[in-house]
Amino acid sequence: MVNFKKEKFIPIVIIGILVIALLLSHNTKEIDMVTEKILAHSNAWVDYDLSEVQLHQGDNFIQPEVSWEPYKVTEKVKGIFMTGHSVGLTERFNRTIDLTKQSVVNAWVIDVKDDYGTMTYRSSVPMVKEVGADSSVKVRDFHLIMEALRENDIYPIARIVSFKDKQAATARPDLAIKSNTGAVWRDRKGDAWLNPYNRETWDYLVDIAREAAEKGFKDIQFDYVRFPTDGNRAIIDYGEAGKKETMAEAIAAFLEYAREELKEHGVIISADIFGLVTTVSDDMRLGQHLETLVPATDVLLPMVYPSHYALGTYGVAIPDKDPYTIVYTSMNTARERAEALETDRPKAILRPWLQDFTASYLGAGLYKRYGKAEIEAQIKATYDAGLEEWVLWNASNRYTWEALMEN
In Å, how far are 161, 243, 323, 355 from 186, measured between CA atoms? Predict the structure, then answer.
């Protein structure tokens, strides 16, 4: 894969544009002066946004068409999750950078829009401003975060919580899932959701993703890219669209739309899915069906946390106590199903979310404390299932680094 160096390319483009414009004016002295000035200050253009590169036309400037799709960057991801608060805390951020450099970890999944629908950084997306999603940001100088990741060769993945969005759905009830009374529907926790059937909600999410790509993220990872699974779903009214399109069709269509809209930005499109999606045959009434999603995305991330499986699943009495069997069975089945799918379209890579937390909330006797052995067992299960990538989840971003250190 070509690693395109934007900072080296941009000054050359600008010089070429200006020299051509000046040649047309036949002013040799002016050419020499401008060229010398640009070369002398080329280092200041390292972070220049290519979208601002413009061609001269009278007293105004216009933007040329540019596509970054040929420079898409892929990585065999071995990652961790980081919240906006974690990357915004200097000491924690620097400590995690140091640990990452000593370990096999090469990627960070960073919250861009979180579970509450709020942004990590100040956004220029109009609807973000409209709904107040960036009224209280976690990181003010986000470009410094991205520069540090680039300098330390850490692959940046943007996590965008999608249809679960209390902030936007409350501020824009016309875009929210409604009850049969016309009121904004809320789940068991009181959270409102954007309606996945509504195409305007798609554009909101894609606009946020586009901005993330322009900030330097290489992989756009949509989470909660599904319909609600709890609360009184019997009273939901999805409108006319819900009568014409299945849930699985709507979710796949959104991801395909996002991939097409973001193609010129050269980013990977990935999606988080429930762990059981790997082994059940239907969409579980949440819109996630494996064979439908495999050709709709570049990467699928089943959340195969052992603690999330019911007692007796796959013949395992207490799933949380047998992480290897749960992860291996889930991911090996998913791989076999993906390989068996007949399609002319590229198929998604499978990259599981693994558990790096102790699920004490399950109650005495139903969980075990997760440490080095449990993390290593899940990683081994992933490899044994014929896969090469994985990401660890810990909501507080405290990882079992002893299981991740380079040998």
Answer: 17, 21, 33, 28
